[in-house]
Amino acid sequence: MAIENVLNSGASQTFSSYETKYLSYLVNQAVRKKEITGFKCSSIGPIISHLLFADDSLLFAKATPSNCVSIRLILDCYTKASDQAGQWNVTEKYLGLPCFTGRHKRKIFNDISKRVWDKIKGWRDKFLSAGGKEVLIKGGNPVDSYLYYESFLAAKRTSERKFIDSGLDSDGESSQDKQKIHWYKWSRLCDSKGKGGLSFKDLETFNKALLAKQCWRILKNKNSLAARVLKGCYFSDREFMEAEIKPTGSFIWKSLGWGREIIVAGSRWRVGNGSKIRIYKDHWIPRPTTFRPLSPTFVDENAMVSQLITPSGGWNI
Known about the structure:
With 317 residues, this protein is mainly alpha-helical. It has four domains: 3-91, no CATH class; 105-201, no CATH class; 206-266, no CATH class; 268-317, no CATH class. The protein has helices spanning 13-32, 65-82, 105-121, 130-138, 143-149, 156-168, 186-189, 203-220, 225-234, 251-266, and strands spanning 3-4, 39-40, 47-48, 50-52, 57-59, 85-86, 93-94, 97-98. A two-stranded antiparallel sheet has the order 1-6. Strands 2-3 form a two-stranded antiparallel ribbon. The chain has a two-stranded antiparallel ribbon with strand order 4-5. It is flat and about 70 Å long. The N and C termini lie far apart (62 Å). This is Reverse transcriptase. It comes from Dipteronia sinensis.
């Protein structure tokens, strides 16, 4: 549910934190009394009853009349105590993206592309210089597109063609009789100006980098809510880097698997006691390209580097 903050701009951050804690207290109390049934992604994953963000709050409950009544009572109590107003007509999106993607993956990106075009087309008849139009196109991406790129895998054809159509061809749509500009291929336009390009952002690389950053957060913050939810669903009995990306996985999980390729290609193990490093499967030897032993297998393929280290710290080879 989305709560619109209508407090005065001078309200202190301390007071806002008390409001957030109060809403969390109300929800937790309802869960303890079993008035609300939280959402669970897997049998061993955490139970989620609410997520509180800076401007919005997401409440999870079972789709039953009793749960819905309990949520409405909580929100009524919260709005009265905090002097806020409930915004009931905006309950499907967070930061411009729908809370649930479903099977219509392209529709999410099409909405963003439409907002880019709406932003650009208002300026297409303005008398802007070539440099001004370039800055306009580069700055045309809405903020929520970055949230999309760090959460979902954008199809290559979609991410390139949509922005070309909405941005680069904007002059051609101002008049049907006006001849459109025939642009170079996208990879050429993304080159620096010194190489003959226009220094546009390579959206595919940008998308993959943001997804890889999310994967790195999962690796470093294993106790975070996102990491625990994904672990319960996809890699409960193994590490994140060893998890299998199955076709039946969710859209977000398959997107993270694509971004994980950067970490797999660029990460190296720093050898300590070697108890977690596999000799033939992990990257741990300072040798370019492979970073693995080239010698024939003389021990079990799942053997650990610790088997090659003596108690005194030397190599047992």
